[in-house]
Amino acid sequence: MLLHIALTIIDPVEIENFYKEVLQLTIRRKFLISSEMSQNIFQTEEAAEIYVMENESVQFEIFISCEKEKKVFSHVCLAYREAKDIYEKAVALGYKAMIKRNPGNDTYFIRDKNENLFEIKDIQVVN
């Protein structure tokens, strides 16, 4: 069972602008990790503020860092009732986004300002 996904961002404004506004996540709590604990777990001396956010059964730990991570293929896939609405909101707010056209339904890719990539799909209804 997946408990949470951890992502790193540089600008805490993204909590409101992207994670709450676009992805519709709710802040459940916020806490700090000390530089000592960060060193023990992540091998970095940077202390970090962490936001625990969720939408239904998906929970994220968003780490605020002063260092941008390099990403190549890493991404998170989320399903929404109206995936196109999520895409359109992201585009309206100036986020990088693209559509992958598929027969029957489209897949949307959206990047936050820290280059975290999200694949957004419509929830598939099973009859």
- Unreliably modeled segments: none
In what order do the strands lie side by side in the largest sheet? 1-4-3-2
Q: What is the helix fraction of residues, given as a range?
A: 10-25%
Overall pLDDT, averaged? 93
Kindly list the characteristics that best describe this protein:
127 residues; four-stranded mixed sheet; 2,3-Dihydroxybiphenyl 1,2-Dioxygenase, domain 1; alpha/beta
What is shown here, in short?
By secondary structure, the protein is α/β, with parallel strands linked by helices.
Write structural notes for this entry.
The chain has a single domain, classed as 2,3-Dihydroxybiphenyl 1,2-Dioxygenase, domain 1, CATH 3.10.180.10. Strand 7 and strand 8 form a beta hairpin. The radius of gyration is 16 Å and the shape is elongated. It is an alpha/beta fold. The chain is built from 3 helices and 8 strands.
List the helices and strands and how they pair.
Elements: E1 5-9, H1 13-20, E2 26-33, H2 35-42, E3 48-55, E4 58-64, E5 76-80, H3 83-92, E6 96-100, E7 107-111, E8 117-122
Parallel strand pairs: 1-4, 5-8
Antiparallel strand pairs: 2-3, 3-4, 6-7, 7-8
InterPro entries: Glyas_Bleomycin-R_OHBP_Dase, Glyas_Fos-R_dOase_dom, VOC_core
Pfam family, one: Glyoxalase
Domain VOC: 1-123
